Amino acid sequence: MFGLMVRFTCKDEDAAAQFDALVSRTGELIKENEPGTLIYAVHRVDGRPLERIFYELYRDRGAFEAHESQGYVQTFLAQRDLYVADVQVDRLDLMSGKGVDVEH
Questions:
Q1: Given this model, what pLDDT does residue 104 score?
Q2: Residue 57 sits in a domain of what CATH number?
Q3: pTM across the whole model
């Protein structure tokens, strides 16, 4: 499995609302079209209204690459910079968890 944890900090409250709308549109397409994307969860951060955290888990590196190649993901990546001031990405190596089979 291959995973990411991404923290976005939006520019301001209006940008956060626009970013959330972009995330919602993109998320629906991910749900409909990506069987290899096992988890794509977006979180607001309590007490930090401009921050969003994404937790993404893919079946394997190939599923992640398929996700990244989708036109709607490319649109998201191009448009997100209109709304965010900072992006921090951590690549994750799943060791254990509930609800997922971990193969090493």
A1: 45
A2: 3.30.70.100
A3: 0.90
